[in-house]
Q: What sequence folds into this?
């Protein structure tokens, strides 16, 4: 290499000066960048911490220092060992220690934590991130902790406001419900009283055949009142269904008189159901309730008269049709309830299945009928849809799954007049019922059946009798007895006193509060009010047959 090709000393010095200037500029830029980042972090509302793999603190912002100083009484410093300065802060360390390995494994995630005393807690949202070096190796981790206490408090205030709104809406709904139920009950009670008065007149005239018909009408209306109560119970909580194989053609045939008396002479009722259609597995009482409600809605849509048709046909749903109906593919019975009434607008049709929605005046409807029918059908594995054209009428479609498990049945056949069962001879029954009228009727019926009956008004007096005298062969008790001893407690005391002692619980409420006690393995059954006397007799016979006498 020639000497004149080498840079001179002056050139080298100039080159070094240029490089030093560039390096100084880059250093100034880096320092300015670091100052900017530091200022951004210090002005952040988040508490920022960073630590290396050994959990040595390598960064902390002003908000974090102020938070520790205010709530913990000390300020962590760069280089501090995190587990050491959190030694007396178990609430923080207890949450940090389990998650730190996840950070070192390269995971970024969000956690929430509540710190401080229960009367003044602070809520934090913590965002964890791994800290990488230039080669993308994890060298530690950092976190942003945001104080969300005000957000949590605002969410709680919003929840309370929503709860207050729901309560207000519920109270408004209760007002609508009261008027509608009072209207329905008055109709039922009016029919019941009228039937009893007519029966009394027919007895005086020695027209016994007509008397039986009037009594049947009264009994039918009493059962309708009981079904109305069940609708209320089903509205308050999801009602337990009692499905069985049902022949819809037979069920509708049994409803003819009820439908005609409910819709009136101005409605032409036509039964288009056919024999030999598929049976369905469903609660027959609830299906009857649903169909009757649909018929009453149809009647109200035809104030000047019209035609009401109930039909059914088998429907084998392929994939496309099942998807349209939001049902699994398979075989269904399609029941239709069609009227030639006023029809519904598209706006009403969109809301008609909402609970308490009604187009009837206040006091003339609960707005529960269609929503209850829809809920029942869906709970039974089916679908309910409506077609309606303003001025032409409405058709309600019910699709219910076919039953293949058993021959179709409908309602149980009415029991014949009771005779004294073999188990009744000499059997003693303790009856506990706080309603005097019902207690009197039950005593008369049980005595007529041949039982020896000891009746009590309350659980306390019945319990004293159990403890003092010989135990009865069977305990029949209302569940909701007033006083310190209810029916469940009395039944438990009886079965503790006499092993395998039979108990019949009776109640007018839903089953949720008694299902834990009424079990076959405890020789205990549950009977809902109102009940017919033949059912009562059958339950007593069954309990006495399966349980040994305690004597």
A:
């Amino acid at each position: 290499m020639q000497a004149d090709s080498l840079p001179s000393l002056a050139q080298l010095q100039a080159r070094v000066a240029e490089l030093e200037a560039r390096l100084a500029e880059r250093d100034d830029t880096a320092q300015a960048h670091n100052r900017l980042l530091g200022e951004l972090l210090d002005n952040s509302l988040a508490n920022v911490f960073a630590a290396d793999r050994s959990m040595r603190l390598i960064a902390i912002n002003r908000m974090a220092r102020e938070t520790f100083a205010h709530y913990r009484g000390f300020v962590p410093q760069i280089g501090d060992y995190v587990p050491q300065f959190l030694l007396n802060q178990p609430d923080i360390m207890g949450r940090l220690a389990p998650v730190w390995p996840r950070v070192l494994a390269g995971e970024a995630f969000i956690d929430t934590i509540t710190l401080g005393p229960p009367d003044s807690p602070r809520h934090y949202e913590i965002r964890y991130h791994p800290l990488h070096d230039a080669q993308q190796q994890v060298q530690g981790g950092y976190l942003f902790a945001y104080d969300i206490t005000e957000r949590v408090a605002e969410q709680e205030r919003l929840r309370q406001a929503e709860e207050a709104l729901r309560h207000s809406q519920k109270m408004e709904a209760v007002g609508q419900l009261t008027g509608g139920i009072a209207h329905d009950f008055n109709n039922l009670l009016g029919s019941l009283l009228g039937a009893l008065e007519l029966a009394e007149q027919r007895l005086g005239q020695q027209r016994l055949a007509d008397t039986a018909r009037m009594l049947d009408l009264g009994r039918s209306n009493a059962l309708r009142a009981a079904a109305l109560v069940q609708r209320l119970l089903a509205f308050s909580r999801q009602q337990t269904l009692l499905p069985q194989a049902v022949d819809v053609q037979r069920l509708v045939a049994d409803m003819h008189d009820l439908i005609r008396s409910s819709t009136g002479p101005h409605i032409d009722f036509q039964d288009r159901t056919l024999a030999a259609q598929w049976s369905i597995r469903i609660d027959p009482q609830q299906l009857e309730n649903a169909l009757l409600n649909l018929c009453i809605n149809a009647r109200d849509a035809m104030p000047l008269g019209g035609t009401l048709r109930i039909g059914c046909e088998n429907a084998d749903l392929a994939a496309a049709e099942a998807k349209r109906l939001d049902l699994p593919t398979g075989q269904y019975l399609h029941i239709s309830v069609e009227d030639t009434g006023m029809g519904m607008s598209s706006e009403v049709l969109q809301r008609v299945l909402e609970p308490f929605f009604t187009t009837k005046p206040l006091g003339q409807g609960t707005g529960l009928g269609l929503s209850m029918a829809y809920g029942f059908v869906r709970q039974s594995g089916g679908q309910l849809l409506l077609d309606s054209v303003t001025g032409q009428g409405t058709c309600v479609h019910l699709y219910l799954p076919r039953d293949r498990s058993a021959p179709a049945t409908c309602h149980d056949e009415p029991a014949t007049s009771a005779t004294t069962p073999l188990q009744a001879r000499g059997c003693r029954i303790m009856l506990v019922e706080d309603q005097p009228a019902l207690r009197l009727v039950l005593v008369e019926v049980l005595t007529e059946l041949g039982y020896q009956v000891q009746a009590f008004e309350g659980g306390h007096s019945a319990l004293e009798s159990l403890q003092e005298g010989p135990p009865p062969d069977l305990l029949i008790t209302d569940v909701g007895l007033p006083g310190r001893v209810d029916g469940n407690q009395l039944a438990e005391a009886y079965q503790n006193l006499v092993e395998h002692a039979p108990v019949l619980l009776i109640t007018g409420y839903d089953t949720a509060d008694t299902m834990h006690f009424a079990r076959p393995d405890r020789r205990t059954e549950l009977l809902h009010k109102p009940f017919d006397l033949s059912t009562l007799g059958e339950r007593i016979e069954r309990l006495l047959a399966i349980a040994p006498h305690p004597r």
Remarks:
- The first strand starts at residue 47 and ends at 52.
- Confidence is low (pLDDT under 50) at residues 235-239, 407-420.
